[in-house]
Amino acid sequence: ETGVTQSPTHLIKTRGQQVTLRCSSQSGHNTVSWYQQALGQGPQFIFQYYREEENGRGNFPPRFSGLQFPNYSSELNVNALELDDSALYLCATAGYNEQFFGPGTRLTVL
Amino acid sequence: GQQVMQIPQYQHVQEGEDFTTYCNSSTTLSNIQWYKQRPGGHPVFLIQLVKSGEVKKQKRLTFQFGEAKKNSSLHITATQTTDVGTYFCAGSYTSGTYKYIFGTGTRLKVLA
Fold first, then answer.
1. Considering only residues 47 to 106 of chain B, which have any Cβ-Cβ distance to chain A shorter than 8 Å?
2. For A45-52, what is the mean pLDDT?
3. Rounded to whole angstroms, how far apart are CA atoms B36 and A45?
4. Which residue of A has its CA nearest to B6?
5. Residue partners of B60: CB distance under 8 A and separation at least 6
6. Ranges of chain B whose pLDDT falls below 70
7. A45 vs B33: CB contact, 8 Å cut-off?
8. What is the DSSP string of A34-88?
9. Pairing mode, strands B106-111 and B10-14
10. Strand B4-7 to strand B19-25: parallel, antiparallel, or no bridges (unpaired)?
11. Mutating which of B98, B100, B104, B106 best tests the A interface, going by the most A Cβ atoms within 10 A?
């Protein structure tokens, strides 16, 4: 196991609502990345946090935002949910030359 | 923009046959990583390649990074049913960051 946990496991929301997803790691790695993986697709990079600061962002609108806390755990917030936001959301902590992915949160937007 | 293409999309092989997936980028990569994702699971790191022309082996798996650092391949010798899953390459264009562009993946099915 990677030691990366995510909560909740599954979530169902309706269009227009807001959601917060959480990620924590036992490893103490100070870099965390968030990815969105639609069904049958590869993970798409959302953003990355390093020591509580955003340190790189993919092609996602501002309604996708995040936080990293002093203990390096992290949150992904999505406002004004759209149907296309339905996906598996993965967080990954970065060790030396590799990334450790959590099990993901499956978000369904109705 | 930066894109990583991966082929084939699907591959069905008989157990014991070999398998190869290819990854191509339009621009030079800083490094490339390979992951395996089982159905219903999350990506699991396999390896990172950094140097031009680098070749690394893990038991039956052989990974190559092209001389121009624009392409990479993963070759599995004598596939087993445990090799089933989707194999992703993920390229980084900037050294020292963890922003990775994932390929579309190759889904491997192994028939016993």
1. 48, 50, 88, 90, 97-105
2. 92
3. 17
4. A42
5. B76, B77, B78, B79, B80
6. 1, 96-97
7. no
8. EEEE-TTS--EEEEEEETTEEEEE-S--TTEEEEE-TTS-EEEEE-S--GGG-EE
9. parallel
10. antiparallel
11. B98
